[in-house]
Amino acid sequence: MGQYQRASTGEPDGLTCLIVFLGSAAFCIYTVAGYPLLLALLARRHRHPVVRSARRARVSVILPVYNGERWIGPKLESILDLDYPLELMEILVVSDGSTDATESIAGEFSKRANVHVLRMPRRGKAAALNLALDRAQGEILFFTDVRQLLDRDSLRHLVECFADSTVGVASGELVIREGEGIEEASVGLYWKYEKWIRKQLSSVDSVLGATGCIYAMRRDLAVRLPEGTLVDDMYLPLAAFFRGYRVILEDAAKAYDYPTRLASEFRRKVRTLAGVYQVIGQYPALLGPSNRMWIHFFSHKLARLLMPFAMIAAAVTGYCLPGPWNRYAIAAQGLFYLLALADSWLPGDGLLKRLTSAVRIFTVLMAASLCAVSILFLPSRILWKETRVSAARQVD
């Protein structure tokens, strides 16, 4: 009856398995490698440069914080040291129900500069940002987080981008310092891959989100956030994007952070990927023709949510491929996951360790993408976890 035919036992026939297996594998390859190649080609052929010029505008610096006593002092020093006129800056520190010394430390800075400490009960970052939006007077809003230090020129570079009337949001670049081991270095390598994609998207038209710890936007484009929003750095930029403005990456504006361990990166990715599900519900136009970057949203954001399911489909259908292809498929996938499992026990930093570490990080990030589905069943506040970094012991 042919090699692809199955007995009538309810099992899928071999041809169906082959189609699903090859389709799933092709989808994963496109997401990881094919789309970046396509994006590189588009960026070379359809480059839209940003018009920059020196300008000065009144800026509201918005710094939401919860129990950030370890970081708030150095962060505010970093802000006050910016190469930007202090008289044109108002600094709004929003304490989201902090129970440590955050508010008193920030209050000391109000004696030196235009620093305002806004206090509120613990309600989450979105509510803290809404409180700041109600108070902000600047033409430009500059959003930043408490842990990352800012390059002196960062704000000036971001403000210069708004000389271009098509720019609604300008995002800076997060620089991850060198990690102490292979695991942290591999997490940093993933972040470099991500930044490269964002740079190409910005060149073509827009990134579909900003770097949360360093971005600026026009005040008149900002909207209030629904409480519980997980990715404010997507929600706010998309408000500008759907009004016809560009969301660009200004890689001359830099913030610096310490590398994270894989466990912390897993929790962060669960939250941010769950936020993508959330933002699709908030902006359903992302999936329709009114999204001028639809193919990029699908390939860069949505495909990453779907890829774990494609990997599961490839694993399942690999068993019912005709021989000997089923054995090859099972062996290849088994070897891949064995490398991920072996990484924790492999010592040193040789070539094999670098390979297993990269495979493990990819596998963990896919698991995070799978876990992000929990946003459909759980309240968003459960997904907020503190990101622990290597520098924590240095700041205590």
Whole-number mean pLDDT? 88
Number of strand segments: 8
**Shape verdict:** globular
The low-pLDDT segments are 1-9, 391-396
* Strands in their spatial order, largest beta sheet: 3-2-1-4-7-6-8-5
The CATH top-level class label of the largest domain? Alpha Beta
Could you say how many structural domains there are in total? 2
- Helix percent reads 40-55%
CATH names the topology of the largest domain as Spore Coat Polysaccharide Biosynthesis Protein SpsA, Chain A
Superfamily at the CATH H level of the largest domain? Spore Coat Polysaccharide Biosynthesis Protein SpsA, Chain A
Based on the structure given, which CATH architecture of the largest domain is correct? Alpha-Beta Complex
Top keywords for this entry?
396 residues; alpha/beta; 2 domains; 8 strands; globular; disordered N terminus
Report on the structure:
It is a single chain. The protein has 396 residues and is α/β, with parallel strands linked by helices. Helix 2 links the parallel strand 1 and strand 2. The N terminus and C terminus are likely disordered. Helix content is 48%, strand content 14%. The protein has an 8-stranded mixed sheet with strand order 3-2-1-4-7-6-8-5, with helices on both faces. It folds into 2 domains: 167 residues, no CATH class; 201 residues, Alpha-Beta Complex (Spore Coat Polysaccharide Biosynthesis Protein SpsA, Chain A), CATH 3.90.550.10.
